[in-house]
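ESCALATION

Customer reports they have been waiting on this structure for their group meeting. Please prioritize. Original submission:
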Amino acid sequence: MIPVPLLVVVMGGWCAVYLADTLLKSSSTHRIRYESWLASRGLMLSPFHVRWQTTMFNRLFAYCARINPRAQYLWFNSGLVFGLVAMVGSVVLLTKTLQQTLAQMTTDNPRMGGQQALQVVVPGVNLPTSQLGYFFSALLLSGVIHELGHAVAALREQVRVNGFGIFVFVVYPGAFVDLFTTHLSIISPAQQLRIFCAGVWHNFVLCVAALAFLFLLPIVLFPVYFTGGGALVTEVIQGSAADGPRGLSVGDIVTRLEDCPVWGVEDWSSCLSHLSLSPQTGYCVPGTSLQSSWAHGRAYKRLDGTMDCCSNNSLTDLCFSYMRPQGKNSREYACMPVRKMVSGTQVCRTDGDCSAGPSDAGSICVTPSLENQTRFIRVTHPPNTHMLFVGYPPHLQYAVSLTNFIPRFGFLHLDLPVFLETFCKYVVSLSGALAVVNSVPCFALDGQWMLNALLEATLVTVVTDRQKRELIGFFLLLAGSALLAANVALGLWMVTAR
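Update from on-call: job pushed to the front of the queue and completed.
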C-alpha cells in the first residue's frame, strides 16, 4: 500500500496550493494583481496540476531547426520509421505485459513479477524514497528531450511553436510544446508523421546515449577512478549484519568472500549466490592445536535436524563438526572460539584437502555446524582483519551498498560514480518507457496523432470517405486505450494492493 506519510504530504501540499489559489482569486483586493502575476509568468494552476509556459526557448528551437537541413531530413525520416515500428512494437509489448500480469495474479510465485518488461512505478511503494531525486530528474530530462524533438521537427516543417512548458501532475513532472494547430492541419500526413514521431525517436536516442555512457563510464572515469580492484563499500545499513566494530565500513574494499575472489560488485553478488547454494565450507586446523584448545560440548539437535554444541549463546564461540581422526564415519562436535580457529586458515571439504603439503600433515577439516540455509562466511577487506558473518547470505547483500569504482585520490567523493551509474540507469528505463508508452495508439498520447496521420497517408486511396477513415481510427484508438488502461489499472493493483 502507499505509505500514509507520503500520501499526507502530497495531499496536504496540493490542498494548501489550491486553497491559496482559490482565496487569492476570490479576493476583490488581490484578484487582478494575482491573475496578472500568473499570466506574466506563464503559470496555470488547477487541482493536482501546475504548469509553466514560456517563449524564451523559441529562438533556440529555431536555431536547432536550421542546422544542416539535409542531415536533419535524414534524421527525422529515421524517426518516422522508428515511430511506426515502435507503435506496433508497443502494442505487442503491452499485450505481453498484460498476459504476464494476469498470470502473476493467478499464481503465488514471487519471481514472476520481475519478468515484466514494463511495471507501474509508485513512489514510496516500489520506488524507494531515497531514489526519488533520480526518478524525477530523469523523468523530467526524458520529457524535455521528447518535447525538444517535437519542437525542432515542427519548425522544420514550417509549423509555428507557440511556446514550451513544464508541468507537475500530482508528483510526476513533465514537459510540453504548444504547436499552432492551423499550420499543423494543412501540412501533408508525411510531414505530420515526422513531427509526431520525433518525440519517441528522441526518447529512444536518449536511451541509447545513456546506455552507451553507462557502458563507457569506466573509461570516462579512468583518470580519477579505477575498477577491478575489488568492491568498494559506499554504505552500511546501521544495525545490519555487516555493521559493528569488526564489520564493514564505508571506504573498505572487499576482495574475497571465502575462497571466491571479488573484483567488483558483480563478483560480490555471484559469490554470495554461489555460497548460499553450496555446502558450508570447512577450514583446516592443525590437529595438535585443536585438541589442546577445543571445548567439548554435548551436541543436541535443533528443530531443523542440524546439530549444535554451543549452549551458552556466546558471541565468540561456534559449534564445529569434524571426523574423528582415529575412526571413520564418526563425527564429533566441539564448541570453539571461531575467530581463533578460522583466521588465516585454508578452506577445505575433507581432511584430504588439508594434506596438500608436508606442513599440513595432521590438519583436520572442521566445518561450522549451522542451521539449514545459514552460512559462515569470511569477508576479506584488507588491511583489516576478516569480517566473520553468520547468517543467510542475501542478508549480507542487502546490508551494504557497493561500487566498482575505487578513487585514485583521497579527496574524491565515493558516491560520484554511484550517482552517475544510478542516474543513467533511470534515464535508460524512463526514456525507454516514455518511447514505448507514447507510441501506443491511445487517446491523448502521441500514438493518437501518429495513427491518424498514418491512416491519412495510407488509406486515402482505399477508403475515400474521410468519416470512415476516422471511424477506423477511432476503434483502433479505443482498443489501444483499453490495452494501456488495463495495464495501468492491473499494474497499480499489483503494486499497491497485493
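Sent to customer with the following note: The chain is about 50% helix and 20% strand.
Escalation resolved.
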